[in-house]
Amino acid sequence: MRELKILAVVVFFTLVTYWGVEPFAHSIMHPHHEPATFTYDDLKPLNKSGDPKRGAEAIMNNGCTGCHGIKAAGIPAPMDPVTASASYGVNPPDLSTAGALYDEKFLANVIKNPVHAMKLEHKFGDAKPFPMPNFYGSDQDLADIVAYLKSIAPKEVTPKDAFVNACGRCHDMKYDNWYVIGPKPKMDTELEKAQFNLKHAQYQANLKKYLGTNPPDLSMYIRSRGHEYIRDFVEDPQKLLHGTAMPRVGLTEESTMKVIEYMEKVGDRKKEKRNSLGPWVLLYFVIFSILAYLWKKKIWSEVL
Ligand code: HEC
Ligand code: HEC
Fold first, then answer.
1. Can you tell me which atom of ligand 2 is nearest the CA of 212?
2. Torsion from C-alpha of 157, 164, 265, 150, nearest 10 degrees
3. Rounded Cα distance, 218 and 235, in Å
4. How far is the CA of 260 from the centre of ligand 1 (A)?
5. What sign does the dihedral 135-206-168-115 (CA atoms) show?
6. 99 touches ligand 1 (CB under 6 Å)
7. 62 lines ligand 1 (CB under 6 A)
8. Which residues of 19-43 are buried (b: 16+ CB within 10 A; e: fewer)?
9. Distance CA 11, CA 17 (A)
């Protein structure tokens, strides 16, 4: 009887912690916010359908390739990353995958008025112009450019490409050898290593001047922040970190999941192993509990 009372007390306090204390602490540490919808409701939809052929011309006529490479169309980046970051603060991303990564409505809006679409009005304006200019062409030209970017984008973007193209110009992923200036090549001499580190430091300094802070290396963020936070943060950084320097990037839900898949592959390599080990650990406990019980019975049968 006494044992049962002790058990009841232990169960009671365990449940209070589980349902009372833990959720309370959680709600303080992670205040509630609306989950991501990926609808970009605050932006105006594009009401025209575009023509990819005319879009290819519009891209050329509007100077996009003065800053952006488009590998899929055989157009290389006009500058190396460090030079580009000296001019624009950050290396303008290659546009080959833009049509697949970004939500169509967001894409049209970010081309027309990047500061508005990226929610950076608190940082850029007439006094501090944004590096990418607004687009003053017609809505038809805009629809054509979007149609063109969609037409050259691959059907399926790999998780790594999604990360590199959407996040890799600002964030390192050291555990997978990704740096904001590109992957670290195999280097034999100290001089080569010093040169790489110098370039990386120059780029980081330019980023800091541009953003006001250095974006963190994301290798372990999937563990420290978790899926849900990353998904909701990427959809709208301002909602979770008011005044943050990170722009809204405008990914579709699908490409956000790709980025998360990649972050998980890099930051939590052992997850599958851990999950498959779980049932075996439980089995181990069950078997040993039975043995312990049988042993206890045997001992007590000798005593009594
Ligand atoms: C003067 C240089 C410059 C020109 C010209 C320019 N861009 Fe950009 N663009 C940038 C920079 C810099 C960024 C990255 C900004 C950032 O991440 O803060 C960018 C970002 C983008 C993005 C990614 C947006 C996102 O959500 O991450 C797209 C798409 C894009 N540009 C398309 C275009 C198109 C289409 C044109 C032509 C109409 C164009 N750009 C012209 C500099 C330029
Ligand atoms: C134009 C640069 C830029 C791009 C592109 C960018 N980020 Fe960031 N990111 C930042 C900056 C700057 C910070 C630091 C924010 C701060 O401290 O206010 C940040 C912070 C973060 C954080 C940490 C948030 C926290 O709670 O501390 C995560 C996670 C993150 N970014 C994920 C991403 C992902 C995923 C992508 C691609 C989908 C991405 N970022 C694209 C600039 C960028």
1. 12
2. -20
3. 17
4. 23
5. negative
6. no
7. yes
8. eeeeeeeeeeeeeeeeebebebeeb
9. 10
- For residues 261, 266, 270 and 274, what is the CA-based torsion angle, rounded to 10 degrees? -30
Establish whether residue 140 lines the binding site of ligand 2, counting it when its CB lies within 6 angstroms of any ligand atom. Answer: no
Which single residue is written with the structure tokens 């500058």?
79
Q: What is the pLDDT of residues 79-96, one digit of tens each?
A: 999 999 999 999 999 999
Q: Please give the distance, rounded to the nearest whole angstrom, from the Cα atom of residue 145 to the centre of ligand 1.
A: 13
- Tokens read off for 125: 């304006």
Q: Which two tokens stand for residue 123?
A: 């940082």
- Considering only 102-116, 148-162, 265-279, 289-303, which range has the smallest mean pLDDT? 265-279
Burial-class residue 92 by CB neighbours within 10 Å (0-12, 13-18, 19+).
Answer: buried
For residue range 215-268, what is the model confidence (pLDDT) as tens digits? 999 999 999 999 999 999 999 999 999 999 999 999 999 999 999 999 999 998
Cβ atoms 222, 260 nearer than 8 A? yes
Q: Are 167 and 145 in contact (CB under 8 A)?
A: no
